[in-house]
Specification:
about 150 residues; two-stranded antiparallel ribbon; 8 helices; 2 strands
Length: about 150
């Protein structure tokens, strides 16, 4: 059996070039898009419940619950929160009685507040307080100027 020879492109560098795939994808963008669409149609034709089976919500919830510690610690490390562990998170949650450190309201989804420059952990906040604090920190001078004008 004779092996089919690969098609070569005169306007592309050799396949060993690090930029080859990028250039190939740019050149064949429409063809690749069509092939992907055909593949997807075929998958759905073969099994109409393909995505329902692939993205099983019950499985995802079970996976999250069983790997919560690892997933949260990886997330905190990824966004740059230093020295944050799941045990520290639970301790702080108990110390704050599951209440926000700013508004003292009960928290449904506690957020870990941290300094974006140093990565140092500061406390657990509710979503509105954490988002508000982030906006305030980015526009501190404007907020202070506004508060000075309003309180006069």
């Amino acid at each position: 059996m004779e092996r089919k020879k690969r098609q070569t492109y005169e306007d592309l560098p050799p396949r060993s070039d690090p930029n080859y795939m990028k250039l190939y994808n740019q050149k064949n963008r429409e063809r690749i898009k069509q092939l992907n669409q055909q593949w997807l149609k075929q998958k759905i034709q073969d099994n109409p419940n393909y995505f329902k089976e692939k993205y099983n919500q019950e499985y995802q919830l079970e996976y999250y619950q069983s790997n919560k510690k690892r997933l949260l610690e990886n997330h905190w490390a990824k966004i740059g929160i230093l020295e944050m562990t799941y045990e520290l998170f639970l301790d702080e949650l108990n110390k704050q009685n599951n209440n926000c450190k700013i508004c003292n309201n009960p928290m449904e989804k506690p957020q870990v507040d941290h300094c974006h420059k140093t990565g140092k952990y500061r406390g657990l906040l509710c979503v509105p307080c954490n988002n508000g604090l982030g906006v305030f920190e980015n526009n501190k001078e404007a907020f202070e100027k506004y508060l000075d004008e309003v309180t006069k």
